[in-house]
Amino acid sequence: MHSDRHFERRRALRGNAYTLEEFRSRYGLHQDVAESLFYRFGPSSIELDILMAAKKRVPSIHVITQEMGR
C-alpha cells in the first residue's frame, strides 16, 4: 500500500530522519501502522525511537546485527 499523504514538518527535526520504509523495517511494523505513526509524529529518528521505546517495541534483531557490523 502506498500513501500519497504529504508530510509537513511543524518543528525542527531532531536527529536523523527515517524514511517510512526504514522506520517500518526497523521495528517490523505493518505498513498501515508505520504510516500512521510516521505521519503523526514525523520522520525524526530520535522521536520515533522514543515513541517505540514507550510502546515497548525494540528494533528487529536483523537491524541490530547490521548496525553492529558498521
From TrEMBL:
This protein's name: Uncharacterized protein
Organism (species): Rhizobium altiplani
